[in-house]
Amino acid sequence: MKKRIKKLITAAAILLAAGILYYVINRLTGFAIPCPFHLLTGFYCPGCGISRMFISLFQLDFITAFHQNAGVLILSPLLIILAVVSIISYIKTGNMPNNRWFNILAIFLICCFILFGVLRNIPYFKFLAPIGSF
Question: What pLDDT score does 133 carry?
Answer without folding.
Answer: 52
